[in-house]
Design brief:
alpha+beta; Nuclear Transport Factor 2, Chain: A; 2 helices
Length: about 110
Amino acid sequence: MIPYLAEDATWTMMGCDSFLANGGRTEGKQQIIDGIFTLSSKIYERDTYRMDVRNVIASDEYVAIEFTVNATNWKGRLYKDATCCTVLRIPDGLITEVREYVDSHKVETVNWDT
């Protein structure tokens, strides 16, 4: 995905504004790499991370991907059957916007002890 991110891309984790910096919004390709991708690799044990795609829907410059995630986090807790949906905006072949909808309650309670 990284080669297809526009330099000025934005990534918003919808519903995670209460426990993620900047209201869950990250701006800029390098900030997305350093923030979102790095954080995810620190939270979940890489060899346990599994994403199963259920649906992909595309229309004009938008693509929606519905998927489930199963993984073990750094605390040894199972992040199980988390249903997510990511909406990508891809004008002219580069991803300019990502809106990721997650079970924010599950993300927060499994990973942040709240």
